[in-house]
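I hope you will forgive my troubling you with a question about protein structure. The matter concerns a single protein, recorded as an amino acid sequence and a row of backbone structure tokens. Please examine both parts with care and let me know of anything in them that strikes you as inconsistent. Here, with my thanks, is the record as I have it:
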Amino acid sequence: MLTSSFQHIPGIGAATERQLWHAGLSSWQNMGPDIAHKIPPKRFRTMTACLKESFEHLKSNDPAYFADLLPAKEHWRLFNEFRKSTAYIDIETTGLRVYGYEITTIALYDGQNIKHYIKGQNLDQFLEDIQNYKVIVTYNGKTFDQPFIEGQFGVRLNHAHIDLRYVLRSLGYSGGLKRCEKAMGLDRGDLDGVDGYFAVLLWHDYLQNRNEKALETLLAYNIEDVVNLETLMVRAYNMKISDIPLG
């Protein structure tokens, strides 16, 4: 989908992009003499230069370039081309606000491997591991997970960021992650009913009572979040694609 996108080019919004698609410009590769007569000369020159640069950034595996230029609601378009560089992440904390609380666990999933990080054990390792990826996918991460991570560790995450909360909302799914999962037919089994507040209680039980079972449940819940994020990302991407008039 990214190579059929033109909204990262100055002066091209959603309406103009659809006009280009209907005019036969279905991908960057089609930009040539056959399409030139359908586009004003000045715009054609701008598009040609921008698409040359776009090919270079795509070849160099640089999704941040496109994330900086595309509207935030269109960041889902990055997924297919950069899927192998994508990490699904989710944090659990000692409280439900960004300030005054701490991260307890982080789960990371890249479609093949699952990693988890625990406060007091290996939490700092997350900062090293996340650098192996170019794109992060979260649910509500732009207002919660990313600010929490950046504030606690004093770092800046420069990854392209696809926040599924906004993608799913554009498809008619709203509310928290669990509500969206249920609306899309995902079942958490034994973990159904565990939520962010209960995750806080599990952490306190682990700390105060050295209850390893509480920590295991917390980690299972955290990991379930990131595994389900991939499923939701794939479904949302396919749903968005189905609405694009490209045949």
In short: The chain has a mean pLDDT of 91. The radius of gyration is 21 Å. The longest helix spans residues 212-242.
